[in-house]
Write a structure and sequence with these properties.
The protein has 363 residues and is mainly beta. It has one domain: AttH-like fold (Beta Barrel). Helices cover 0% and strands 55% of the residues. It contains no helices and 26 strands. Strands 1, 2, 3, 4, 5, 10, 11, 12 and 15 form a 9-stranded antiparallel β-sheet that branches. An 8-stranded antiparallel barrel has the order 16-17-18-19-22-23-25-26. A 6-stranded antiparallel β-sheet has the order 6-7-8-9-13-14, with no helix packed on it. Strand 13 and strand 14 form a beta hairpin.
Length: 363
Amino acid sequence: MQRHIFSAILFHLLPITIEATRFHNPRFRPESGGILSSGLATLPLQFDLLGSQRNASGFPGNSFWSSSFLHGCDNHDYLVVSHVLTGIDIVPGTNSMYRASVLDITDPSRYAMFEFFSNISSAFPYNGDFNVTLHDYGFSTANPGGDVSKLRTWSQVPGAQFDLQFDLSARVLLDGGLGVFKTGDSTVHEWSMPAGNTTGWLSLNGSKVIIDTEQSLTWYDRQWAGAPRNWTWFELHIDSRNPEVADIPLSIWVWGDHESGIGGVASVREGGVVQSVVPVTLLEPSNRTYTSQETGIVYSLDWVLELADGTAFWISSVRADQELYAPGGIFPTYEGYITVRGTYKGIWEVEGYGLVEISPLTG
């Protein structure tokens, strides 16, 4: 039996000052065609891509994470983040964590989050199907029986409720080029599905909103077996400015510190298919920061990000307080909606949106 050990819910619904420059309105464009493409057959992958969605109990530190960019029936845009992590030892008597947040992008003063610890025997309890189901939260395969093409995540936590289903309908983005890369002493296994078709609803502080599927998408991120000690990660969606061409998704990792050394890599998918790996040459934060009242951590809110191919991005978080944590400041992570402007490959002026995840070095 899954046992609920330790929980907290924190709501942040008071008016705030939004200092970030926003280009809005963003365009959330889902993709079709399926996660696999013919080109993957010739890649020397070191793991079974879809097999990692089934009976993967041998993988330590299993992470299942989604960010859903949603256009609602109220003509507001929303971001819903959902994350379950198993095989961890943070709080005694627990081995897993689940958390989520809901942000009204159109009115960023409306925001809610929660983070819970629990004890889950396996993320694949029934015939190898991915299924994490607790009394107030779930993340699972929507069609059991080996069909991993659709996932569902939901929350019944008051104030931050949602029920979303999304297809693995966008071609995969393989981090590090083949879904594996090293960060110091750790090896990260990770792949992403950047723009899946999404249906469902959300409720932020009691107001239920139906999702417009044609103007909504979900990025799904599957990771296991390792992670840096601390990192700043960017999920970016760069507008292709062509309705016939998919937007450009980037998964960008930066880790380390100035004493041990800084590392960084951008994994890019262009034209819906072509993948490339580009070194990060600069990540420079601005003086605009947010200091968490709960954890005391100071988070950067703006960055200049440069890649070796001449790409330069100016990135801003639209709401200062987007930190997820449990009581006492346990296991904090910043999961913030961002806007981006810049020059792609030193040639094209571009804009986009996405998410920054900051996992600080603590303890």
